[in-house]
Amino acid sequence: MTRYRLTTADGSVLREWDAADARTAEDEAVRTVEEHRASDPQGAAGYLLTDEGGGDVARWGPVAP
After folding, report:
1. For the region Disordered, what residue ranges are annotated (predicted)?
2. Whole-model pTM?
3. What is the rounded CA–CA span in Å between residue 34 and residue 49?
4. What is the Cα–Cα distance from 25 to 55, expressed in whole angstroms?
5. In the predicted model, is pLDDT for residue 31 greater than 70?
6. Which structural domain range is residue 36 located in?
């Protein structure tokens, strides 16, 4: 299992979790981004999903993934 971190564009951590692969982590991140946008549209400028090594897995701008 690899550890993943989802942050907002300003670096605030929304969530961290373990997933079997990047695809699974990205699916979970999409759900989290959708929930965050629904509850905090002002904070929905951008999101970044990284793995435990700091590598980019996915990025989202202000348009829904």
Report:
1. 32-65
2. 0.85
3. 14
4. 13
5. yes
6. 2-60
